[in-house]
Structure formats: structure tokens, C-alpha cells
Amino acid sequence: MKKKWPLLASVVASAASASIAALGYTISNRVMYMKQKDEQFIWNREVQSNRLDEDWFTHVAKESFIVQSPNGYPITCHKIQSTTSLNTIIILHGVTETHINSLKYAQVFARLGYNIIVYDQRRHGKTDGKTTSYGFYEKYDLQAVVEAVRSQMTHDALLGIQGESMGAATTLQYGGLDDTLFDFIIADCAFSTFEKQLHHVLMRDTPIKTAYAVKLADFFIQKRDGYTLREVAPIEAVQKISKPILYIHSLEDTYIPHTMSEALHAAKPENTRLVLFEKGEHAQSFNEQPFDYEKEIIKFLVDFHISYLPQDYQFPQKKRRTRIIQPA
């Protein structure tokens, strides 16, 4: 009978190890392979909610060009030529979205005298890439796009970058690599560190109420995708950025809490501004208060002496916005 105890212990240990491995694999899968939204669904959602003026988009001058990612795939960039000026803004979407989601900001920047460039981030839309890494690999894609765009601009032309959610985190991480080629950043609802963000989501959305789950996910992500969660840390990157940054967040955001933007701002408050809107779930600040959002962008650009309103600028007339309920 005594001889069975070592065997039983071995079986229990093996079962526990298998369960832990399965949990780590499952969490890392969820992180790396989050389900994407259909591009046509995004287009219909933006048009129906009046965030994308289909007639304006149809008639505005557009062109596409290819940038080769250092990660090994082509990135198709879409340029909206809305002004004779060379001033340009690159806009990055968040996780599960595509460049179509970025177009809701296009008319804002067109009114402000900027051309607009959007593209699908890694493993989104028509851009290849095995995994989503929340800025770790994506920042090098953005670096390649910035270099390509800047090479076609005059020295005195302005180049800004706006990111939403993962796009904001990507933008800040790129800025920490090199802030010499762009003039300003607008970071809408960025997370401060991916380690804290994953912990928050696991606590909020799953029955896994332990910090060990994050450590387990970190181990599997490092083995499977080549980076650690601690390496995805916008809060460290912002301390290396000297260019002006506008942080935007909504107080109702429960996916990425507004305290993360507050932490980013506090990490290096010099030459930065934090705007907190009362309304809006995650990445909904513009959707809930588009006119106030545009006013805050204008104030940022003017107050930080980046650019001024074009002489023909006209503040948009308020339109009724249809609330679109997104499926889970």
C-alpha cells in the first residue's frame, strides 16, 4: 500500500502541471490571438453612427503606398490628401479594429490643415503578422511608417501621431525609441504597462483572481512570442520623449482605467497635458463628445505652439449621432 503513495503523488503532480500549462497556454492565446472585427462591420458602424462622412471620404483625394515592416511583411498605408500643406498626422487604431476605425478622426485633422495617414496594425485587417504584441513589435512597424512619411516631407512640415488604445500604447513606445522625426503625440486611452493591464482584465473579466496568472501568461508569452510583459511599458517610454504629448481618457472607461493615463502624465508631466472626459466607455471619448474632443485638440496644438487654425477653418455643425451597440 505504501508503494502506491509515490505513484499517486506523481499522478497528482503531473495533473497539476498539465492544468497549469493549459491555463498558461489559454491566457497567452487570448493575448496573442484576440479575435478581430470584420472590416465591413467597422465601416457600417462608423457610417451609420455619422462618425464617417461617406460622401466626404469618397471625394477627398486618396492614395496608397507600401512600407516594408522590419518584422517581415508589407504594410499598406492609406493617405488622405486633404490640404496643400505637407503637415501630416498618422493615426493608429486599437486592438480588434482596422484602419477604418481611425477614419473617424480624419475630418478633424483635415479641418486643422493636416493630411492623414492610416494603416492596419500588425495582425489586423490586411496586415500580416503572426501575433498581436500590444506595441512590442508594432512600434517597429510605426517606426518604418514614420521614416517613410518623413522622407517625403520638408523639414519644416509638421508630423504628428495619434493612437487609440493599443494604438496609443504603440505610439508612446515608438516615441521612446526615437522622438526626432515627429512633432507631437496624442495618446487616447493608453495603458501604462501591459503587465498591469493584463492583470486588470483578468481580475475584471475572468474567474482567475490571482496575480500568479499574469506571471504564468508572461512565461508562456516569452516562450511563444519572444518578449516579456515588462518590455511592453509605455510608462517607461514616455520619460524619454521630449515632444509635446496630449493624453486623453474618459472617466467611465473600465477596460483601461483612466488612472493609467494619469500615471503616464505623472511620469513626465513636462510638455504634456491630460484631458479627462466625463462620458465614454473604452475608446469612446470622441464618440461621446466629438465637439469638445476637437476643441481640446485645437487648444493643445495652439497652447503648445505646434500649429494654428487655418484661415478657412470652420467648426463643424452638430449632427445627431446614432448609438451603435457593438456585439461582444
3D structure, described in words:
Keywords: Hydrolase, Signal. Helices cover 42% and strands 15% of the residues. With 328 residues, it is α/β, with parallel strands linked by helices. It has one domain: Alpha/Beta hydrolase fold, catalytic domain (Rossmann fold, 3-Layer(aba) Sandwich), CATH 3.40.50.1820. It has an eight-stranded mixed sheet, sandwiched between helices. Helix 1 (4-32) crosses helix 9. The longest helix is centred in the N-terminal third of the chain and has 29 residues, at 4-32. The radius of gyration is 21 Å and the shape is globular. Residues 7-17 and 320-328 have low confidence and may be disordered.
Quick description:
The chain contains 13 helices and eight strands.
Search tags:
DNA-binding_regulatory, disordered C terminus, hydrolase, AB_hydrolase_fold, 328 residues, Alpha/beta hydrolase, eight-stranded mixed sheet
